[in-house]
Amino acid sequence: MGRAPCCEKMGLKKGPWSHDEDQILISYIQQHGHPNWRALPKHAGLLRCGKSCRLRWTNYLRPDIKRGNFSREEEDTIIHLHEMLGNRWSVIATNLPGRTDNEIKNVWHTYLKKRLESHETTSHAPKRHSTKSKRASSDKNSEESIVSQCHAQPQLNSHDEEQLVYVQPSCSESSSETETTTNSFDVAKHEEIKHETFLDDSFWSETLSGEGDDIMESNPTTNISSVEFSSSPLKVIENEDIRNPYTDCHMGSIDLWYDIFTRIEELPELPEF
DNA sequence: AATCCGCACAACCGCAGGAGT
DNA sequence: AACTCCTGCGGTTGTGCGGAT
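The joint structure predicted for all components is written out below.
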């Protein structure tokens, strides 16, 4: 496979994004979407490579990013899924609405891994995320104000973890209500779990990439917030009252998970995807 | 008060793989 | 089939902050 030539570094800015750059990126994506990341910075007038723009958008500026501390349920979900999937952060992220793979990866490396290593599985977690934003109080105030400009929906609150659904895209750029709601979680059937998990991976990535861009391209002037939140999976879940299996039974389901893991290991061969 | 150290997290880098030609 | 382009992913690094010494 050919590898994309790295963006010509001549004259391209690196490092932390400035307020102005964020504004430019947000406003451009709101107006035009992001059908082509590579061409985006040029068209938007940003001295950044497309990769950097995409990363900034997906990891920080995207409207549906859920900021704030990870709940205990989210942490447990990460741990469970990491046991099952390994370092497939993007797949794990699809099960944590509003969380990015980068964020989950960071949390894992800086905190959860150590928590597991020290076998500290009981309630009190070590000091962490008391202020998720050590920097948030200073230079991120400005950044969050930027982000909030495209957050048409209020920040998620502590009840959000009750709305977690096993199979769910992290990105609300598009989602299908029926698809989301029909992906119910049947933990009793490990094959279905595997199927849904891996199906979810490709399914959502395809769905998201396709529909999101379609929306944007077909409605270039559509306000991104209205588009995204009109089909917000969180809203769907809220309406449908689908519960997260981890939330419902997560601490009581250790045996269940153990059973799942052991049964998976009994399988002669895992299908490759 | 100054320095050191660890933590948290944003951002970068290289690679893999799908899509298009 | 072979090639290029583009996107997404996972690993890693850089930087700023707060607490400890």
